[in-house]
From TrEMBL:
<comment type="similarity">
    <text>Belongs to the UPF0538 family.</text>
</comment>
<dbReference type="Pfam" id="PF10209">
    <property type="entry name" value="DUF2340"/>
</dbReference>
<dbReference type="InterPro" id="IPR018794">
    <property type="entry name" value="UPF0538"/>
</dbReference>
<protein>
    <recommendedName>
        <fullName>Altered inheritance rate of mitochondria protein 29</fullName>
    </recommendedName>
</protein>
Amino acid sequence: MEEPLTSNVRPATDSVLTIRIVKSFPYRNIKNYIMNSVDLKHTTAKKLLDDIRAIINTTGGLRPYRNVEYDTVKIYTKAHGTKSMNLAINFENDEEWVLVCENSAMKIEGNKSLWDLGVRNETELSLFNWEAYEDFKKNPEELW
């Protein structure tokens, strides 16, 4: 008898998401924040972006991450899926996996629910600045 995957046991109205807050791509300044009890069917990508910004501005442990203008949320990896070789960000699937982007160069409204965008329980999402991402994508050199 095979047990179900833990990512499939929780309902879509009570999911767990890992938010990877990316302050700097070259220096890999990344902080993971776990969001519990996320309703994937009723939470839009825009609302998630606003909620994460509010969490960053009110959580003491995230104080060093407040000086970045976060405007984009992108899927880093889906539960039980393959991960990117790049530890900072997933360069693939920009068209499908960018959930919301407020940058004028890549404007994506984010009005669809997370469920409709393909986000499931235990998905890892990256929060970052689009311009910094574009610069790093052109020259993905890691610094120390």
